[in-house]
Amino acid sequence: MGSAIAADEGATIADEDQVSAMTAFARICFATLLLMLLGLTAAPALAQKLAPDGAPNPTASVTNQKTLLEQAPRIQGRIDIPDVKASVLMQPMGRTWDYFYEVLLHWGGAVVIVGMVAVLALAYLIMGRLRIEAGRSGQTIVRFKAFERFSHWLTAVSFVLLGLTGLNITFGKVLLRPLVGPDLFSDISEIAKYVHNFTSFAFVTGLALITVLFFRDNLLKKVDIDWVKQGGGFIKSKHAPAGRFNLGEKMVYWLSVVAGIAVSASGFVLLFPFYGTDIADMQIAQVAHAVIAILFIALILGHIYIGTLGMEGAFEAMGTGEVDLNWAREHHDRWLAEKLEAEGRQASATPAE
Amino acid sequence: MARMKFLCDADRCIDCNACVTACKNENEVPWGINRRRVVTINDGKPGERSVSMACMHCTDAPCASVCPVKCIYPTEDGIVLHNKDQCIGCGYCFYACPFGAPQYPQVGNFGSRGKMDKCTYCAGGGGPEAPGSAEEYAKYGSNRFGEGKLPMCAEMCSTKSLLAGDGDIIAQLYEERVEKRGYGSGAWGWTTAYHEDVKT
What we know:
- The structure holds 2 protein chains of 2 kinds.
- By secondary structure, chain A is mostly helical.
- Helix content of chain A is 66%, strand content 4%.
- Chain A has 13 helices and 5 strands.
- Chain A is elongated, with a radius of gyration of 36 Å.
- Residues 1-14, 39-47 and 349-353 of chain A have low confidence and may be disordered.
- By secondary structure, chain B is α+β, with helices and mostly antiparallel strands.
- Chain B contains 7 helices and 6 strands.
- Chain B has helices at 18-27, 62-66, 92-96, 134-140, 152-156, 167-181, 190-194, and strands at residues 4-8, 37-41, 49-53, 72-74, 80-82, 162-166.
- The longest helix of chain B is centred in the last third of the chain and has 15 residues, at 167-181.
- Chains A and B meet through α3, β1, β2, β3 and α4 of A and β2, β3, α2 and α3 of B.
């Protein structure tokens, strides 16, 4: 090409015959080169298969569905109706989501939840109920104020409702449907769906409250390292020091906050389907919602165990709001000391007055 | 036993939407519900193709698989039907459907969905209603299939692009067409829906 242009320019000083001959030659060279270059890139597109009658093949430029699906996970086009999500012609990922939901989630969820229950049963059989070693002192101290307990129970009750109604969507057809029959089961499930949708708002409110109320006391401190070194209260001969919340409780708090936010966010995506989301977003939201919810349920099963059956004197904290002094001394010594000091009380185990 | 399928010959579809209109009219489908739609790929570009799409009545239908109340099932003709009395409107069948077939009326707050509605292959409903009854018609639409007729959309197709009927027969029809005219962009959705393709 460079030589052709040079020849073209050089031709201006040559005589007329030569000029026309040269330019014609140069032009042919140029055109041939251009065609060759074009041919290299465009050869596959131009190689038309002809129909038996010699007409050009109209599908030559059509990208078939196999190629389209290799380029993108779904085939999308233009649609004549306002329903934007209908513009997706095909999304084979639906079958993948089906596999996740029907196989991975059912088995994975069952293993996690049944596994957690088994671990807790084993803990109960081996360790039994953790007693207040020094026995009850008869004196109590306020651990959770009324508003703190309200926030906890708002979250707790809505969590249990959401958990049961949510598990029904996944496991109900396996566990409940054979027991109550298809018609009653679908009535229950429809009510459960509405309970799940509306309880979500109570849960988010409760979650926001406990996140704020217990934030300061759940920040990690140096004493948490000592708590771990002393066996976290599981070794009877050792005393594990702790502030208002020990590291185990802090982990429950932080995991709950993170899981709660994630499960709420994905839940609201599902509650407002296709509000600015597409089919892939909805599938991802469902996967996230289900996986986090299963893990969250396992965590809270552990939390419920330790707060009721697993430890003597623990439930009162969220029940009446007051705990026994000896319980507080054994599990939250630093917190008790601060609290008694603030109230100007003596840290004696003997009954006052 | 016949295995009922749909096949859209995209090289014949002219995006006239007669199938959509025929479906709406035949089944008295409410506003906002589209059991069938036409999607145009590469609109305005070389190789533009329009494909008429509705429920493909899949083999191992993923919608039936994920349904939390098990209200979707295949008939012995391979038609996927559902029982609206049991449907809870959870929307999971839409997430699982490779073809965007399930439709839901908006019934309340937020994205609250009513009973799912979808193409029934003009074969009535999967509920307890008597086939061909007025109750069945009101809930699910026409039961042409019970009268030995094929779906209205395919019957109305002006270019005979949309084929309905026994899968082997419509596949053979399509293969003959491709052989005769020398081209064909394939049976859209078949590999995903039926785990098999036409032989072209």
